[in-house]
């Protein structure tokens, strides 16, 4: 893992966007793994600003969303199909036909999840996967006790996750109880991963994922097994790490061509 600690959430989004832009500039038809939720919003805003300024072209890229609620109408404003279209596809000028979201409305859920993994493989795999992390250590909707070998599948959302996502719904009772999510094994297949976290509420999860043992109780810790995982956090999210000064030193002393700024 490479750990980058920055002063503010905006800095986290800007530097993560620089890393993603580098991937797209080197491979215009890159395959992006797209996360939703609050954590990656600054990334998408920063990427959109680059697109608007003519510094980045994402029109040839394709994308696979990380997850989707089960049973929620496709046109519901909080379906991840709607969120990805609104927050990613439109502002980045991506081709909607090249962006896939798991089908949480499929009659045959198991077939839909198998087909989703097959589609990722057929596209050549994800070049860079964007991730956030939940306060309980989940990535995607892989809740604690998820298998590190898991593939895209249906999962029951933990009560804490439903409570955290209730802010996006008019009534907490409207938060779906199930989701489709890329599995930890699917995520680990990505060629590169960038995980972002902001705020003190993520400090325990970041400490467990980065410095704790690889454990099913902290799904984010599976990224310790990834060959190219970059963890970008603000000072508050880094507050419970023990090697903070080392992480800052190693990033500050990277050769200029390896930095993401």
From TrEMBL:
EC number(s) reported in the record: 3.5.99.6
Enzyme active site: 67 (proton acceptor), 136 (for ring-opening step), 138 (proton acceptor), 143 (for ring-opening step)
A Gene Ontology biological process term: carbohydrate metabolic process
Site (Part of the allosteric site): 146, 153, 155-156
Top-level class of the enzyme under EC nomenclature: hydrolase
GO cellular component: cytoplasm
Catalytic reactions of this protein: alpha-D-glucosamine 6-phosphate + H2O = beta-D-fructose 6-phosphate + NH4(+)
CDD domains: GlcN6P_deaminase
Domain Glucosamine/galactosamine-6-phosphate isomerase: 14-228
Domain of life: Bacteria
Regulation acting on activity, per entry: Allosterically activated by N-acetylglucosamine 6-phosphate (GlcNAc6P).
Pathway(s) per entry: Amino-sugar metabolism; N-acetylneuraminate degradation; D-fructose 6-phosphate from N-acetylneuraminate: step 5/5
Pfam families: Glucosamine_iso
The UniProt record lists the keyword Nucleotidyltransferase: no
Keywords for the protein's UniProt record, in alphabetical order: Allosteric enzyme, Carbohydrate metabolism, Hydrolase
Keyword flag Cell inner membrane: no
An example molecular function term from Gene Ontology annotations: glucosamine-6-phosphate deaminase activity
InterPro entries tied to this protein: Glc/Gal-6P_isomerase (IPR006148), Glucosamine6P_isomerase (IPR004547), Glucosamine6P_isomerase_CS (IPR018321), NagB/RpiA_transferase-like (IPR037171)
UniProt record similarity statement: Belongs to the glucosamine/galactosamine-6-phosphate isomerase family. NagB subfamily.
Protein task: Catalyzes the reversible isomerization-deamination of glucosamine 6-phosphate (GlcN6P) to form fructose 6-phosphate (Fru6P) and ammonium ion.
Protein name (Swiss-Prot/TrEMBL): Glucosamine-6-phosphate deaminase
Gene from which the chain derives: nagB
């Amino acid at each position: 893992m490479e750990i980058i600690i920055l002063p503010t959430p905006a800095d986290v989004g800007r530097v993560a966007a620089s890393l993603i832009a580098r991937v797209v500039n080197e491979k215009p038809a890159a395959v992006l793994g797209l996360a939703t939720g609050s954590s990656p919003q600054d990334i998408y805003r920063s990427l959109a600003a680059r697109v608007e300024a003519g510094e980045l072209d994402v029109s040839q890229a394709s994308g696979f969303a990380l997850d989707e609620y089960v049973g929620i109408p496709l046109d519901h404003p909080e379906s991840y199909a709607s969120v990805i279209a609104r927050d990613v596809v439109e502002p980045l000028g991506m081709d909607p036909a090249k962006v896939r979201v798991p089908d949480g409305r499929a009659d045959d859920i198991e077939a839909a999840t198998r087909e989703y993994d097959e589609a990722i493989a057929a596209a050549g795999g994800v070049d860079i996967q964007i991730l956030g992390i939940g306060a309980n250590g989940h990535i995607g909707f892989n809740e604690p006790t998820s298998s590190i070998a898991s593939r895209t599948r249906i999962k029951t959302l933990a009560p804490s996750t439903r409570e955290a996502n209730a802010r996006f719904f008019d009534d907490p009772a409207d938060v779906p109880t199930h989701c489709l999510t890329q599995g930890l094994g699917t995520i680990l297949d990505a060629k590169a991963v960038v995980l972002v976290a902001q705020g003190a509420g993520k400090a325990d999860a970041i400490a467990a994922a980065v410095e704790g043992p690889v454990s099913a109780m902290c799904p984010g810790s599976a990224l310790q097994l990834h060959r190219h995982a970059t963890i970008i956090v603000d000072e508050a999210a880094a507050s419970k790490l023990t090697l903070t000064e080392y992480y800052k030193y190693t990033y500050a002393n990277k050769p200029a061509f390896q930095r993401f700024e």
